[in-house]
Amino acid sequence: MQWDDLRFVLAISRATGLNSAAKLLAMNPSSVYRRMESLETSMGVRLFERLRSGYRLTVAGEQLAEAAARIEVEALNVERRVLGTDMRLQGTIRLSASEALLTHLLADQLPDFRAEYPDVVLEVALSNRHVDLSRRDADIVIRATASPPEHLVGRSVGQVNGAAYAAKQFLDAQGRDQPFDAYDWIGYDGELASFRQARWTEQNVPAPRVRLRFDSISAVHGAVVRGLGCAALPCFVADQDSRLERLPGSFEKTDVQMWVLTHADLRKSARIRAGLQFFGRRLSAHAETLSGELDRDS
Predict the structure, then answer these.
(1) For 6-53, how does the pLDDT look when each residue is reduced to its tens digit (9 = 90+)?
(2) Is 48 or 154 the better-scoring residue by pLDDT?
(3) Strands 120-126 and 91-97
(4) 199: three-class secondary structure by DSSP
């Protein structure tokens, strides 16, 4: 058995299927299957039960997967510690941020980052999901949260508040200063169902008035712009759009902060430190945009 074989066992056990495992490994499913078959043949034992619902570890497979997981953790620990000693301002930074944050605040900063750090490659993953920096799913994560994980280090760059908005044309037609339940609304679905603005909508708008739902803040924003209804949005998304108007009485001051974070093992790396400082500095300059306090007339 080669140490590299353990990656395949872990991937299949976590994905419970060849196609999903192949995506994790960035390989063709047939190649993953051949590698698994070869490993089972060489060891003389079945590692997975082939079921209609997917692949399930056998007892032998569980033992191997547990050992592989321990080895993976140690390898990742070593990788982070070694990367943390890298004093070169070159290489790759994996940055994780939400689509809304990239679209409305970060995108304008990227040309300056490129100019300031020409030898650093920035890989940006857009997701609202939790990313595991211990597994190096990302090197730097920018997230809105009230309680960042204790094992991460970084800084808060401002408070993230929200309010409800509608297109000015929509309000021209429907009338202003109406109760919330007089309007059609756009809500959140999927990963964003527990989102702060999703909870505000749930608490303030009767469910039958929510006529559309999206799993993307940008999609909700776009629907509001097109006059499909009102929606609760982060202030940094909506206040900068002159086509939208904040609904009176909808401003919500929250305990959520925007954080720029990395794993403690990575903070001494020159390029990770540079990324933390750059994005922390640039986003701090937009603290009033994040909070929506400048437009607090509602």
Answers:
(1) 777 888 888 877 788 888 878 888 888 888 888 888 888 888 888 877
(2) 154
(3) parallel
(4) helix
Distance between CA atoms of residues 259 and 28, nearest Å: 37
**β partners of residue 51:** 54
Quick check: 40 and 47 in contact, CB under 8 A? yes
pTM of the model: 0.69
**Which neighbouring-strand residues pair with 188?**
214
Report which residue type is found at 268.
K
- Residue 247 DSSP label: P
Residue 96, C-beta contacts closer than 8 angstroms, at least 6 positions apart: 124, 125, 127, 131, 137, 138, 140, 141, 142, 143
Q: How far apart are the first and last CA of the chain?
A: 66
Indicate the length of the chain as a whole number.
Answer: 298
Q: Please report, to the nearest 10 degrees, the dihedral formed by the alpha carbons of residues 136, 137, 142, 145 taken in order.
A: -100
CB 163 within 8 A of CB 250: yes
CA atoms within 13 A on the CB side of 242: 0
Q: Are the C-beta atoms of 196 and 254 separated by less than 8 Å?
A: yes
Cβ atoms 271, 91 nearer than 8 A: yes
HEC assignment per residue over 82-135: HHCCCCCCCEEEEEEECHHHHHHHHHHHHHHHHHHCCCEEEEEEECCCCCCHHH
